[in-house]
Design a protein that fits this description.
The complex is a heterodimer of chains A (about 775) and B (about 170).
Chain A (H helix, E strand, L loop, with lengths): L23 H6 L14 E7 L5 E7 L1 H4 L4 E5 L9 E2 L6 E2 L5 E2 L5 E7 L2 H9 L2 E6 L6 H5 L12 E9 L8 E9 L11 E6 L6 E5 L4 H12 L6 E5 L15 H11 L3 E4 L2 H7 L6 E9 L5 E11 L7 H10 L9 E9 L14 H19 L3 H8 L19 H10 L30 E14 L8 E9 L2 E6 L8 H13 L3 E4 L17 H28 L6 E4 L2 E4 L5 E3 H5 L3 E9 L17 E14 L4 E12 L6 H20 L5 E2 L2 E2 L17 E7 L16 H4 L1 H15 L8 E2 L3 H5 L1
Chain B lengths: L3 E6 L2 E6 L7 H8 L18 E4 L2 E4 L12 E3 L12 H9 L8 H14 L5 H8 L10 H18 L10
Parallel strand pairs in B: 1-5
Antiparallel strand pairs in B: 1-2, 3-4, 3-5
Classes of the chains: A alpha+beta (about 775), B alpha+beta (about 170).
The complex binds FE2/S2 (inorganic) cluster (2 copies).
The site of one FE2/S2 (inorganic) cluster has 12 residues of chain B, from loops.
Chain lengths: ~775, ~170
């Protein structure tokens, strides 16, 4: 029985309700099929041979040894790629297999297929590659200065973009500056890369079951490399074990298809964790210099900045990541004048691309550290300096774009500030050693533990930018009392599957919503990234459902001789708002079927000009974070005690899902602040395992207190803004600011200009 | 040398034929016997995705040789409740919003079952400690901790009348 909430009048499962996920039971029972779980009879295993060098010339490859291993069915190298030799999201600059040179440690050189994963490993070991090792390009500044020969035919500069806004010569009475660095963070989704390719029997086509963020973009790149027309390549979404940006680029897709087409049998490839660390793109390591000019009362007058992002060996999305970084230089604050110089360069480091926050994480760590310095220089508090400069709707950004989005920056700050501080006493002072930074196993002493508070506030663009034709497709079928939705939107954990059903129930007054297979049999939904799917695919599902509703009303109106404009949905009924007709939706449909497909677009955006001016972004979301940490200044140990956050969500379509995004994003922000980094030495990766790359556990995560700032955005189809990225953007600088504050209480001044902050940065 | 060995999984016997003896329990469960509910995410005992019970003890299946589980009982996530009728802990995860991508979930469910069997009155910090061997990249743990605490509370409330029976299996 369906019980309506008498306080809100809301039907369960409709918009605004914390409806539970339709895939929840399968996931808790272990019956949900992830891409790594897909097995079919006659399937063989594939594996990849990778470059051991950051830079080397391939003198020769001898695969004959691999063929001698019993059980081997295929060995492929660059010679065996029938279509385009390279692929890429923005430019096709990355080889399917390295042919003449290798440009990073882990670059694919060959693949094999065999009857057992161990056979594959023996076959890989039997391939002889003769390398002539070259001097790697590792320092982005060397690339910028042009002091290293081009490591790629496209050159070593991936993008250079300036922003000049207002009066470039303006100065302020107060000036603060700093150079900030961020290490390379890994998305570390739990569900490793895995794919199953099934060749079409008797035909030249292929079906790929794949965990990805964007089926259609994958298909475009795969088909080109296979030399097949796109309709010959069908992609089906395999269950996705997290993504966070790491599944936006091609990894094993082309390899798996090539092997399956070669041997005419299904092939599975699954990466190991070690391989995954080099098998997908990462967050760009960055070095950012910023100088803020302000009045003595703390009003920002001008910002100067220089961004250097290390893109690694291939372009991936470095260009839009850099754009995002530099266009968010000012943060969520007013800034009339700016001079910004941004570089994304190619090196022989691991390729970098999308990760949750997409360039804005880097900018935010710099601008928030600067805001604290400015506060100090002006004798103001962290909250006061931010409130004085808080951006509002109608403000002009340093790109000349006017912020049309709802911009409740001041409200986010004051609401976060009003959240209660933790009651827990300073670490270990209650005699409980478990509460010490580092836990009971360390030698931390309660006397050396100090508490600090820090702030981080952020602005994040939503959806795609710079003139990209960004759209999502959805199909809605109403038959009987049941709605079936079809879309190609990748569910990666974020919960679009629950939101889609909520939209259909709200618009069409049905209870039962079925979700069709997610595949390329319908138009693209774009990528599950850029906090865009609730707005874009949500907008598409909403529009398709509304179109069906219109047709339903036309039908009912014709049957009853009414004007369709008088009809509305009330609960699960169609009603005549000016009369007495009331008809269950199920009865109103009466053996008919309504079927509509809609493409939804956000408003167009523009490229930046050479001065970085232009309406390049679609919309913005904001968040404020306040961190409370305990720090053992002597040992350099940190325990995050609490994160309080107020986030501009537009409208919470599913408050429980929003909370999950906020808590999960904060965990990743905490990881970047104090533990997560892919440690590299001369282009080699030193910690490609979960033993050595540390992820936050349940003992590292603090209490999170949340205030949802709900001001529905009139430009958003459902009033809702994307909520996925902001939590991981400003939580990092808030935690670092709190550590600086705690150290100040211990009488120690540390700039802590680099994340992750290591114990040695604190204690030494 | 035998051509096969037998494993007792979720109450029934399964023969493993012609297997290489170096295979982990995780590999045999997933690849040879089709128990794909148990996940592989690190294969070095760091993430807990592969958690199973061997003679009711919580074990990382990636670190155990399959052969070492002969003569013992293995319980995987699939063995905790009948398909379609989730256990109390499983239902608590769904209701509390503890599931996003769900990749960590089976391991966490097994770990939470083990915890609540061993320490039915576990709360707050104890739950955090017990689950700290299970990495979740999506949720930040808030809803997971809430789910386990809710399941513990519900069990205690339901079992309040027969508290002496606790621990008997
Ligand atoms: S896969 Fe066994 S602990 Fe990670
Ligand atoms: S829900 Fe994705 S890893 Fe936990």
């Amino acid at each position: 029985m369906i019980v309506t909430d008498t306080r809100t009048g809301r039907r369960p499962g409709t918009l605004g309700d914390s409806a539970v996920r339709p895939d929840g039971v399968a996931k808790v029972q272990g019956t949900f099929s992830f891409s790594s779980d897909e097995q079919i009879d006659g399937c063989v295993f594939g594996a990849t041979l990778r470059s051991p060098h950051p830079s080397a010339r391939i003198v020769s490859i001898d695969v004959s040894g691999a063929w001698k291993v019993s059980g081997v069915e295929a060995v492929l190298t660059a010679e065996d790629v029938p279509g385009n030799a390279t692929y890429g999201l923005v430019v096709a600059d990355q080889p399917v297999f390295a042919a003449d040179v290798v440009r990073y440690v882990g670059e694919p050189v060959a693949v094999v297929a065999a009857d057992h994963p161990e056979t594959c490993q023996r076959a890989l070991a039997a391939i002889r590659v003769d390398y002539e090792v070259l001097e790697p390009l590792l320092d982005p500044e060397v690339a910028i200065r042009g002091e290293h020969p081009d490591i790629h035919p496209d050159g070593n500069i991936l993008r250079h973009q300036r922003i000049v806004h207002g009066d470039p010569d303006a100065t302020g009475d107060v000036m603060v500056e700093g150079t900030y660095e961020l290490g390379m963070q890994d998305q570390a989704f739990l569900g490793l890369e895995a794919a199953l390719a099934i060749p079409e029997p008797g035909g030249g086509g292929i079906e790929l079951h794949i965990a990805t963020q964007w089926l259609h973009e994958d298909r475009r790149q795969i088909a080109a490399c296979l030399g097949l027309p796109e309709p010959k390549v069908r992609l089906v979404l395999g269950g996705v074990g997290g993504a966070f940006g790491a599944r936006e680029d091609i990894s094993l897709q082309v390899h798996t298809c090539l092997l399956a087409l070669r041997i005419g049998r299904p092939v599975r490839i699954q990466y190991s964790r070690r391989e995954s660390f080099v098998g997908h793109v990462h967050r760009h390591p960055a070095r950012i210099w910023m100088r803020h000019h302000a009045t003595t009362t703390g009003q920002i007058v001008k910002i100067e900045a220089r961004f250097v992002f290390d893109g690694g060996a291939y372009a991936s999305t470095s260009s839009p990541v850099l754009l995002n970084g530099i266009t968010h230089t000012q943060g969520p604050y007013r800034c009339p004048n700016a001079v910004v110089d941004g570089w994304a360069v190619r090196t022989n480091n691991l390729p970098c691309g999308a990760m949750r926050g997409f360039g804005v994480v880097q900018a935010c760590f710099a601008h928030e550290s600067q805001m604290d310095r400015l506060a100090e220089a002006c004798g103001l508090g962290a909250v006061e300096i931010r409130l004085r400069n808080a951006m509002r709707t109608g403000d002009t950004l340093i790109t000349g774009q006017v912020v049309e989005s709802v911009a409740p920056v001041a409200r986010c700050i004051t609401e976060a500030d009003a959240l209660p501080l933790p009651e827990e006493p300073v670490g270990g002072r209650d005699g409980d050693p478990m509460r010490l930074p580092g836990g009971a196993g360390r030698t931390s002493d309660a006397e050396h533990v100090h508490r600090g508070i820090g702030w981080g506030v952020s602005i994040k663009n939503l959806m795609y930018s710079e003139g990209f034709d960004d759209f999502a497709t959805a199909r809605c079928r109403l038959s009987g009392g049941v709605v079936t939705l079809k879309f190609a939107t990748a569910e990666v954990g974020q919960g679009f599957v629950v939101i889609a059903g909520q939209i259909a129930r709200s618009v069409l007054g049905v209870d039962e919503v079925r979700l069709d297979t997610v595949d390329t049999d319908i138009g693209s939904s774009g990528s599950t990234s850029a906090s865009r799917q609730t707005w874009m695919s949500g907008g598409a599902v909403d529009a398709a459902c509304r179109k069906v509703r219109e047709r339903l009303f036309d039908h009912v109106a014709a049957q009853h001789g009414l004007d369709p404009l008088r009809l509305a949905i009330d609960g699960t009924d169609v009603i005549d708002t000016m009369g007495t007709l009331r008809l269950a939706v199920e009865d109103a449909v009466m053996g008919r079927e309504f079927d509509e497909t809609v493409e939804f677009r956000h408003r167009p955006t523009e490229d930046l000009d050479e001065n970085g001016q232009g309406n390049c972004h679609t919309a913005f979301a904001f968040a404020a974070h306040r961190a409370v940490v305990d720090v053992d200044a002597e040992l350099g140990l940190v325990k995050v005690i609490q994160i309080a956050t107020a986030q501009d969500v537009g409208r919470a379509l599913n408050p429980l899902s929003v909370l999950g995004q906020i808590e999960g994003g904060i965990a990743q922000g905490l990881g970047l602040a104090v533990m997560e980094e892919i440690v590299r030495n001369a282009g080699y990766v030193r910690n490609a395992s979960f033993t050595d790359y540390l992820l936050p556990t349940s003992l590292d995560m603090p209490e999170v207190v949340v205030s949802l700032v709900e001001e529905p955005d009139p430009q958003a189809p459902l009033g809702a803004k994307g909520v996925g990225e902001p939590p991981c953007i400003s939580s990092t600088p808030a935690i670092v600011a709190a550590i600086r504050d705690a150290l100040r209480h211990a009488g120690i001044e540390r700039r802590l200009d680099r994340v992750p902050v290591r114990p040695s940065d604190i204690a030494l | 040398m035998p051509e096969f060995y037998e494993l007792q999984i979720n109450g029934s016997a399964h023969d493993v034929h012609d297997a290489w003896l170096g295979e982990s329990l995780l590999y045999v469960l997933r690849e040879r016997l089709g128990f794909t509910g148990t996940k592989s995410a690190c294969e070095e005992g760091e993430c807990g995705s592969c958690s199973v019970l061997v003679d009711d003890v919580l074990v990382c299946a990636c670190l155990a040789l399959a052969g070492s589980a002969t003569g013992k009982t293995v319980t995987t996530v699939e063995g905790l409740a009948a398909t379609g009728t989730p256990s109390d802990v499983q239902q608590a995860f769904v209701t509390a919003g503890a599931v996003q991508c769900g990749f960590c979930t089976p391991g966490l469910i097994v770990a939470a079952h083990a915890l609540l069997t061993e320490s039915p009155e576990a709360t707050g910090q104890e739950i955090r400690e017990a689950l700290s061997g299970n990495v979740c990249r999506c949720t930040g743990y808030g809803r997971i901790l809430e789910a386990v605490a809710a399941a513990a509370r519900a069990r205690l409330a339901a079992g309040a009348g027969s508290i002496d029976d606790r621990g008997e299996t």
